[in-house]
Design goal:
alpha/beta; globular; binds zinc ion; 10 helices; disordered N terminus; seven-stranded mixed β-sheet; 350 residues
Length: 350
C-alpha cells in the first residue's frame, strides 16, 4: 500500500519486497538511511537478495516514479569539465603514453601519434591504475570509424565530445534538462527523454554505454532489453555500476558511496549484473572489476560526517592519498578475487 504524502517535498514510496532479477525475497541490511550527499528527504531501508547467486541490493520501500525527481533536486553530477590548458611535464608524458596505449590496444588514431617510438604506450602497463583510467576513457571500445555510439545518462556530453574526436558519431540521452541544454549548445545530439520513450529504430547503434546509470532505473532488465534492440548484431553494450559485494562496501558499510539512497534503486553485484544482462538477451558477456578511488575517497568523507557539502569542496589530500593507496591494494586483491572491486564493468556483445 502506498504511503500518504504529508508535505510536498516528501518522496512517497511503496513496498518492494522481492528481487527484480531473481524474484527471491531479501533481508534488510540497513534501516532508516538518509541521503548523506544531496539532502533528498526521507529515510530508506535497504535489502539484499538472499540468493547467493544474485545478492542484489535494493530499496524497500522504493520511491514511486512520480516522486523520484525530488531525489534529484540538489543533485550535482553534470557540470562540464574545463580543459586544463597548463599541464605539467609529467601530465604531458602521461597524455603521450595514453595516446600510444589507446592506439595500440584499441586502434584509435591521433594526429600527434609518435612515429619514432610507437611502442611507448606499453609503458602504461607499469601503471595499472593509469591504464585502468585509459581503458575507462574509451569504455573498452575499439575504434569503429564512423561507428554510431549512444551514451545513456550523458550529462552535458564531455565524454561524447571526446569520443566524437576519436571518430565516433555520437548521440546522448539524459533526463537532466540543464545538462541536455549545455550538451546541445556544444553541438551534440542529445535527447531529454527516457531511452524507451525515444524508440530508436532497431539496430541503430554500434555501441551503447550506460556509465553509472543502471543503478538509477526502475526496471533494469527492461532498459537492457531496449539496449539490445537498438544495437546492431555484433554491437557492444558497456555497463558500469557500483559493486555491492565490494571490499569498500564491506569496510564502509552504510557509509559506502555506492549505496546513495534514494537515487540508487538497485545496487548490483557481479552475479546480479551478469544475470540482468543475460535476461536482456545478450550472449557473450565479460564482467570486469574496476577500482574507483573516488568511491573510497567519498565513502571516507561520508563516514566522517562531512555531509552533502563535500561535493565541489576542496580536496582533502591526506584522504585522497589514502584512497589512491587503497585502490592500488584493491587492484592487487582483484587479481585473486575480482568481485572485491568497488565497481563492475560489463561488456556484452549482441
Ligand atoms: Zn536476486
Amino acid at each position: 500500500m502506498m504511503t500518504e504524502s504529508i508535505d510536498a517535498a516528501e518522496i512517497r514510496a511503496e513496498p518492494y519486497p522481492t528481487c527484480t532479477i531473481c524474484g527471491r525475497e531479501g533481508e534488510f541490511i540497513y534501516f532508516e538511511q538518509q541521503d548523506r550527499m544531496f539532502d533528498a528527504p526521507g529515510e530508506w531501508n535497504l535489502k539484499q537478495c538472499t540468493n547467493e547467486q544474485c545478492r542484489l541490493v535494493w530499496l524497500d520501500p522504493m520511491p514511486i516514479k512520480e516522486d523520484i525527481g525530488k531525489a534529484y533536486a540538489h543533485y550535482y553530477t553534470h557540470t562540464s569539465q574545463s580543459n586544463e590548458r597548463h599541464v605539467g611535464m609529467l601530465k604531458r608524458i602521461y597524455f603521450l603514453l595514453k595516446r600510444e596505449y589507446l592506439t595500440s590496444k584499441y586502434n584509435y588514431q591521433f594526429k600527434s601519434n609518435s612515429l619514432l617510438i610507437p611502442c611507448i604506450g606499453q609503458f602504461l602497463y607499469l601503471f595499472p591504475l593509469r591504464r585502468a583510467e585509459a581503458d575507462g576513457e574509451v569504455r573498452f571500445l575499439n575504434a569503429v570509424p564512423s561507428g554510431k555510439l549512444l551514451d545513456v545518462g550523458c550529462g552535458s556530453g564531455d565524454w561524447l565530445l571526446s569520443m566524437r574526436e576519436l571518430g565516433w558519431e555520437v548521440t546522448g540521452v539524459d533526463f537532466d534538462e540543464s545538462a541536455v541544454k549545455e550538451g546541445r549548445e556544444r553541438g551534440l545530439t542529445v535527447y531529454c527523454e527516457n531511452l524507451e520513450q525515444l524508440n530508436f529504430p532497431n539496430e541503430s547503434f554500434d555501441a551503447v554505454c550506460l556509465n553509472h546509470v543502471i543503478e538509477h532505473v526502475y526496471d533494469p532488465v527492461r532498459t537492457l532489453k531496449e539496449c539490445a534492440r537498438i544495437l546492431r548484431p555484433g554491437g557492444k553494450l558497456v555497463v558500469s555500476t557500483p559493486n555491492g559485494s565490494s571490499l569498500g562496501h564491506r569496510i564502509y558499510k552504510k557509509y559506502w558511496r555506492g549505496l546513495e539512497p534514494p537515487r540508487h534503486l538497485h545496487i548490483f553485484s557481479f552475479q546480479s549484473i551478469h544475470q540482468a544482462i543475460s535476461l536482456a538477451g545478450f550472449q557473450k558477456t565479460t564482467v570486469m572489476p574496476q577500482v574507483a578511488d573516488s568511491i573510497i575517497y567519498e565513502s571516507h568523507l561520508l563516514r566522517r560526517g562531512w555531509q552533502s557539502s563535500f561535493v565541489g569542496a576542496r580536496r582533502q589530500w591526506l584522504i585522497w592519498f589514502f584512497a589512491r593507496f587503497f585502490c592500488k591494494a584493491e587492484l592487487l586483491l582483484t587479481k585473486w578475487k575480482p568481485s572485491l572491486a568497488d565497481c563492475v564493468t560489463v561488456i556484452a556483445v549482441k
